[in-house]
Amino acid sequence: MDDPTPRHSVPLLTDQNEDSPVSFFRKAWEEIKMVWYIAGPSILTSIFQYSLAFITQTWVGHIGTLELAAFSFQNLLIAGLSYGIMMGMGSALETLCGQAYGAGKLRMLGIYLQRSWVILLGTAIPLTLISVFATPILLLLGQTRDIAELAGTYSLWMIPQLYMYALNFPMQRFLQAQSKVIPLAWMSFGVLAVHVPLSWFCVGKWGLVGAAASLNFSWVLVVILQYGYIVSGSCKDSWHGFSWSAFTDLLSFLWLSLASAVML
Q1: What's the predicted TM-score (pTM) here?
Q2: Is the pLDDT of residue 9 over 60?
């Protein structure tokens, strides 16, 4: 006759210490720290990069009201529109790179980065037309001719910044997907530290021309530092150089990028 007594006993109640308030708050604190480890440097990166134009605008305000108005309209309408579109389209990499990284397909991160570059650089071409025709656009919006003409001229000087946006945002998402957020924050802080005195000197010396020169230089520096970090070996598992695969499946990538821009 079988022994009815079970050979292995399983406790019906778990350790009460695991469900205690102290344990709950300890676990919650650990989760919060993990989130802020990623989110904190990412927030700082955005603040540092956004501050580039803000600092320059502060110096331009010392030149005159006409120059300040022209800078403000270009920064808010022309550059602001381009910034939003580029950042939104670049955010498609958050999904794709996150999935590839989680699946262990690290090589695909580099392919996705290059595809995003192709898409965003292509998008920058029609956006360039907004800068080219900024003066008539501002006139249609009801701005005075002197402000519209000066803002239009300044928009032409700021065209290089648009293409730096197209390179910058994909690299940001590429690095963030790999949790390489602290180097991003340090690079952005370093550029801002250089930009403050550089912008002060250039604006004081050459006015709006100096403002455009300092901003373009700083955004080029952002791109150079990020690209240098990627190819330096810090992303050796995800970056294997340029590939023709970047030019495949571009249509679906374009639709995903546009959807990301709309959602943002």
Answers
A1: 0.86
A2: no
